[in-house]
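Supplementary Note 3. Input sequence used for the single-chain structure prediction.
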Amino acid sequence: MDQLSLRIVQLDQAHERKHFNSQSELLNRYFKQQVMQDIRRRVTACFVALDSTEHIAGYYTLASSSVVLTSLPAGVQKKLPRYPSVPVVRLGRLAVDSSFAGKGLGGVLLADALERSATAQIAAYALVVDAKDDTAAGFYQHFGFIPMQDTPLTLFLPLESVRGLM
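The predicted structure, written as C-alpha cells, is reproduced below.
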C-alpha cells in the first residue's frame, strides 16, 4: 500500500461518511449513525485515513478504559502496582473500506492507534481490544497483542513495548 497517499486525521463533521462500506454492517452503521454522537459526548475519539480525494479509507476509535489487574497474565501482574484496576486505552472499533481491503491499511491504522496511545500525555499501561472473533484475534496477535487470562478475545499490548520502537 502506498502510505504516502493516505493521511490519518481526527474525524470531524466535514468528512463524508455515508459512502464508507467495510465488510461489517455493524461497523458501517456505527460509523454512519453513532460515532459523531459519541465524539460530542466525549466517550470516544475517532480517527480516519483519507486518500488523496478525501475518501475515507478506514477508521478507528479510541477511548480511556481500565482492566481488572487479575485479568492480566500472572507475569504481567507481578510487574504492576497492586491497584484493583489498570488504566488502558481501548481500541473500540477498527474498519477498512472494502475498496482498500487487503492492502495493509488495517495494520497502518493499528500502528497509528498505538503511536497515539503511547505518546498521549495521560498515563495508560496498554492498548486493549475486544476482537470480534478468532480471525480478528489472530490479526492482533500477529502484531504482538496478548490474550487476557479468562477472555481470550480481549487482547492487550503494553504501551511500553511500543515506546521502545519509536
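The longest helix spans residues 25-40. The chain is about 30% helix and 30% strand.
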